[in-house]
């Protein structure tokens, strides 16, 4: 996890490096768990594959593709953007922005939006790739912007939320928040509705704003910083927020996984957890990739663990995704694992990209889309 830490102050960096060095001398770090054999019950079959430039690049980017209708959109770290027919992988259009992309991609209402390390937002016509506008924000953008057709909401690394006019890119409002002293490198992607813009912050809070003017409607703390060192007090909400009906699911690093009422922010339930990847939901259960490498299935009614699979310890898992009757999750060696939703046992496995799978898989119908770190975008079905 050290490579995903972003430092706010050089003094803290020096102290933390010293502490880490002492820790590594006294206790050797364990390697990623070796994969164990299992009886294969499900076979994944590749439908198509396409290379998207340099993929995630050398830094810890989380460039997740986006699907709208029959098109899947993906971008690489250098600004290569592609729109593909999601059924067969045929290229509909491609564009080279020649920009350091770090927040990609958001798509809705015919607009594709991308954020960069330089604090730029680029909006493209989703059907043609034609550039519509560019806007400047306060700092780097590490998650895709969200769009409700009227306002594009951007979350920056410094915990600001900015509302831009979807037609012109003109700034409508700014929500300012003081970030934590030490944070993970990343932010969760905001979620927008016709009324609200919702985001998770580095302080362990979730905030909901009136999307028309940026005024806070509610805020809820999901995690409370604890411990003596700044490292121990990191409680970022970096995994993507998940909205299902009127319930908002959220997980924080060194904090909790929780369900909130979207309209009021009221906490429906919570459970101690540490995740920088995020959650999935389906069939009355919530699934979470823990920072330890454990995948857990949680019963929403009782908030107890239905099952826990720790066989992927320290394998730097992606966020989970529900696929048919299974839970899909990627790892640092590029394996896509399928686990049973019933008891968490392994039922299938396929290696996609030897450089690793960091981005959350996407599922539409009977197809799962996986974007590897090297830039390989692959569509698979169950054979």
TrEMBL record:
| Role description | Part of the outer membrane protein assembly complex, which is involved in assembly and insertion of beta-barrel proteins into the outer membrane.
From which residue to which does the signal peptide run? 1-19
Q: Which family does it belong to?
A: Belongs to the BamB family.
Predominantly, its location class is membrane
* InterPro entries given in the database record: BamB, PQQ_b-propeller_rpt, PQQ_rpt_dom, Quinoprotein_ADH-like_sf, WD40/YVTN_repeat-like_dom_sf
Report the locations given in the UniProt record: Cell outer membrane
Against HAMAP family, the record matches this protein to: OM_assembly_BamB
Protein name, per record: Outer membrane protein assembly factor BamB
What domain of life does the native source organism fall in?
Bacteria
**Chain's gene name:** bamB
Q: Which Gene3D superfamilies match?
A: YVTN repeat-like/Quinoprotein amine dehydrogenase
Q: Which UniProt keywords apply?
A: Cell outer membrane, Lipoprotein, Membrane, Palmitate, Signal
Q: Identify the residues that the record assigns to the Pyrrolo-quinoline quinone repeat domain, covering every copy.
A: 100-309
Under the subunit heading, UniProt states: Part of the Bam complex.
A cellular component term, taken from the record's GO annotations = cell outer membrane
